[in-house]
Amino acid sequence: MSKALLDYILKKEHHKFRINAPEFAEEYKEKGLSPIERMTDRFEKLCSLETPHFLPEEKICFVRTIKNIPDCFTEDEWAELKDKYFIHELGYLSNLSPDYEDIIKCGLLAKRETANEYQKRSIDAILGLVNRYKEEAIKEGKPEIARVLERVPAYGATSFIEALQSFRIVHFALWLEGNYHNTVGRLDKYMYPYLKADMEKGLYTEETALALVEDFFLSFNKDSDLYVGVQQGDNGQSLMLGGIDKDGNEVFNLLSKLCLQASKNLLLIDPKINLRVNKNTPVETYVLGSELTKAGLGFPQYSNDDVVIDGLVKLGYDREDACEYVTAACWEFIVPKVGADVANIGALNFPKVVDNALHKHLLTSETYDDFAKEVKKEINAECDIICGNLKDLWFVPSPFMSVMCNNDTIWNGGKYNNFGIHGTGVATGADSLAVIKKYVFEEKSISKEELLDAVDTNFENAPELLHKLRYEAPKMGNNIDFVDDIAVWLLDTFSDALKGRKNCRGGIYRAGTGSAMFYLWHANEIGASPDGRLKKEPFGTNFSASIFADIKGPLSVIKSFSKPHFENAINGGPLTLEFHNSMFKDEDSVEKVAMLVKSFVELGGHQLQLNAVNLETLKDAQAHPEKYQQLVVRIWGWSAYFVELDKEYQDHVMLRQEYTL
Fold it and tell me: Is the pLDDT of residue 536 over 80?
């Protein structure tokens, strides 16, 4: 690793090169330009405005100097578009995993031969910028960089450094075009042949190859502050390692190991590391992953091939494509190269549907089964609303992304066009139903009226009942079948409610166990809940226990959260566990965490993420942010610098349980 380059980036010294681009939308409106003409023209303009700069000792170049990406449409035009179409998020393509492998292998000039007018112009624009970088490298006496840029990305890469540089440029171009949450895909699978060939030629040792991977990883962090989602750090630069290929062969290789090591050495939030594992994954791989968790980055996030692949096949994906799955920006499962799934297009609020049934049907339900039927109806009704709103989906055309996906109109869809629906607050919903079943209908120790009054008054007049429901009632996460079976039923009911529905692009709907930011937003849609959760208290993030639940320990949690039929709810959404960082003071504790992850996989869990935290450190960081600029935490499906988060997200991290083993 170049310490000079790392320090330069950490001090944000390259920000001095940044300028603001002018606005184009009014000009485009006056000229009456089509959406694809606007995107192409904007990309050409932005490429021409970019100024080549080289950072100290870098081997992988390209840094954003245009700070902003001006919109292609005026506010009035967006209003008209939203009246006519369903616009997802910003309206620009996101959360795709393009075909980096093909571009790196063949080069952009080969793609240009069969490209349409807009694709050719986009290719020419980025290659023009590459040429200016090459000329500047020659001018500044950087012949090695110039030689690489002479080759890529115009032509296919012939070496590891060329392959890495080619990736950096086309990844950079996707952001500059205005796409976002641009993922990385199976880097160790498509990059390893270049490293292997160079290693066999004696061009690298493991040590020098690691240094180059570290330089490459630093390139993800040069501009990541410009790629902001819901919060700073939510930028979607998600990288997948390991797993099996279409022939069942293990992909994990030397490059996989170097990527884990580079991330551990740099302690930066990008790229976000995901690790595919299965029942045959050796313990050593889990130890490497746990060493990275020990570093406090909130990754790797684990995905279980044994569950995910079969689940995707059950949903209609060809097995060959399912075997290549990666994650979107957070954790949703997508297929590289050919998929155009919108994996985060909506969300179901489990506690809200329980709350609806509670207020409309509890008093008239004679048995728990009667009440459960009403909850099922509420879930179906909510799915009707969600799916009913998702009509006439429209994305802004993206010519360069279409080059990267080998699809002239990728914005109109691909081989797979499925919509993913999150499932928020599963534990709160299950715990609430467990209270109703146990105390109202079975024991009859709490009357229906008493429970309703307590919920509606935020338990202000029922402190003893609050304590009973909050701390003594069965909670998901303690491996209690009584409540866990309800969670299984909730997820099955959710997936059944989406089954058979076709979306506006001919795809299906995928139920999931993730929450994204909805663990805060959805919690504000209801008051208190029967499980003892108070008004305005958030749900657990993603697929996790309630934040106030008295949990026995992490082993009981993974047992509880491994029970659902994930093949029916395979959109993604990890079990999230927070470990006190004291857990990682010796090798023995790292191995214990590794074995816990292995047990989760063997139990049939589908996705897992771990966070090493220290509450006292977080409190001090909130009070003195200047002392903790590189303190990293896991938020929902991504990691961020703690001090850059809004206070509500910081507070939620501090509320989560810290486990030990």
Answer: yes
Cα(240)–Cα(216) distance, integer angstroms: 15
Taking residue 172's Cβ as centre, other Cβ atoms within 10 Å add up to 21
Q: Locate the DSSP E strands across 250-308.
A: 272-277, 301-304
The arithmetic mean of pLDDT across residues 406-414, rounded, is: 97
How many whole angstroms from its chain centre is CA 152?
Answer: 29
pTM of the model: 0.94
In contact, 311 and 570? CB cutoff 8 Å: yes
- Closest-CA residue to 402 (of 66, 39, 154, 41): 39
> What sign has the CA pseudo-torsion 93, 94, 96, 99?
positive
| CB of 70 closer than 8 Å to CB of 25 | yes
Confidence of residue 583 (pLDDT cuts 50, 70, 90): low
Local structure of 649: helix, strand or coil = helix
- What HEC string does 482-504 produce? HHHHHHHHHHHHHHHHHCCCCCC
Give the H or E element holding residue 349.
strand 342-349
Helix ranges, 181-237 (H)? 187-200, 206-220
Q: Find out whether 538 and 650 touch, Cβ atoms under 8 Å.
A: no
Q: How far is CA 92 from CA 179, 215, 392, 545, 653, in A?
A: 6, 30, 15, 34, 30
